[in-house]
Amino acid sequence: MKILLIGPQGSGKSTQAELLAQFLGLPKISTGDIFREIAEENSADGQRIRETMNQGKLIDDSETAKMVEGRLQKDDVVDGFILDGYPRNLAQKELFDPGFDQAIYLKVPDGEVTKRMMARGRADDSPEAIKKRLDLYNEQTEPLLNDYRNQGILIEIDGMGSIEEIQQRVRSALQK
Ligand code: AMP
């Protein structure tokens, strides 16, 4: 089973992806984790990715698409995978489409996401910066969600509640 987990920063998406991967016995692949690893490398690629990430920007669409396409050719994903973080926009999906069976969208109101991000207290988490990232996220993902909705594979999950409650919702939605 090929599953996409989609949702804004602060939606709890990575935690839910991790729990679901354990439950289904499938690998969890996170583009953010992969890029963070590359960013630690002492190479030209490492430095470029590091700078892009530190500026809060996205990695180039075609570079990201190629990276994911390469990763999904490895042996460990033959039975499926949980993908966290790709595609982020319609352009990426058009460059490389992993062919998901289900796309799970964790829905958390903007106000709640903002509250959670503020609570992290990071320097780049001013209310303005958070709003900007969230607006950009919504603008880029909306067309993607519509696409999966039209394909009939979008599952919308209420992302408010405890980690366990939300995981339960995800699991029962997948069984339907
Ligand atoms: P995340 O952990 O999903 O918040 O991702 C951390 C960072 O990795 C993002 O801010 C981007 O710089 C990069 N990244 C992750 N996924 C993608 C993607 N699909 N397209 C472009 N950049 C990405």
What does this entry look like structurally?
It comes from Candidatus Daviesbacteria bacterium RIFCSPHIGHO2_01_FULL_41_23. Its main location: cytoplasm. It is an enzyme of class 2 (transferase). Keywords: ATP-binding, Cytoplasm, Kinase, Nucleotide biosynthesis, Nucleotide-binding, Transferase. GO terms for molecular function: AMP kinase activity; ATP binding. Strands 2-3-1-4-5 form a 5-stranded parallel beta sheet. The mean pLDDT is 94. The protein has helices spanning 13-24, 31-39, 44-54, 61-71, 90-95, 110-120, 127-151, 163-175, and strands spanning 2-6, 28-30, 81-84, 102-107, 154-158. The longest helix is centred in the last third of the chain and has 25 residues, at 127-151. It has one domain (2-171): 3-Layer(aba) Sandwich (Rossmann fold), CATH 3.40.50.300. The chain contains 8 helices and 5 strands. The protein has 176 residues and is an alpha/beta fold.
Oligomer: single chain
Which of globular, elongated, flat, extended, rod-shaped describes the shape? globular
Following the backbone from N to C, one meets helices and strands in this order, namely EHEHHHEHEHHEH
Please tell me how large the radius of gyration is.
16 Å
Kindly state the percentage of residues in helix. Answer: 55-70%
Instruction: Specify the biggest β-sheet.
Output: 5 strands, parallel
Number of strands: 5
> What's the number of domains?
1
* CATH topology value: Rossmann fold
CATH architecture: 3-Layer(aba) Sandwich
Uncertain regions spanning at least 5 consecutive residues: none
Number of helices: 8
- Calculate the terminal CA-CA distance, rounded to whole Å: 14 Å
- Text of the CATH class: Alpha Beta
